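Cross-posted from the bioinformatics board.
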Amino acid sequence: DTAVSQTPKYLVTQMGNDKSIKCEQNLGHDTMYWYKQDSKKFLKIMFSYNNKELIINETVPNRFSPKSPDKAHLNLHINSLELGDSAVYFCASSQEVDGGEQFFGPGTRLTVL
Amino acid sequence: RKEVEQDPGPFNVPEGATVAFNCTYSNSASQSFFWYRQDCRKEPKLLMSVYSSGNEDGRFTAQLNRASQYISLLIRDSKLSDSATYLCVVARGQNFVFGPGTRLSVLP
């Protein structure tokens, strides 16, 4: 059973398009995250949601909009895709509010042409 | 200065070697500390949490020095399967900051 799942696994699209990445966790966790890992392999937090409420919004362009329909899902919608958005996007979840282990999804490799 | 810095690597070591990774962090308000492991083209996975008293899990030993804002990971008797990138992670509440990672290759 997959704990944190993401779809799609690969996404290739043209500049200017709008796309979404879906994330679901079946661990019963209250906190979910989105991370971006760029070509230099830096893993940087984008958003953190606790029980469907936005807790952290790092310096991310407002073209990125997370949506949490319930605490098991945190989707990421990206408008007007740019070349620099090409990266691997990881969803994660954790049980504890402060500093607990994070469980990561397998990642979505986004390529913007 | 980056909030979390690590040895740049890569480390290439023979099987059976002992290898140590260092990590420093700049925010003294950091509360939780971890080592994660990331295999090539895979997601990061927790290796171990790091406590002030130090902790050991088999061949892996982690140390935390809050005064120096320094974290270390020691791997003894390294195996081929230890080849991966090791990520130092520092957290304040739900804000997790990942270091750039140190790549380890264990050679036969």
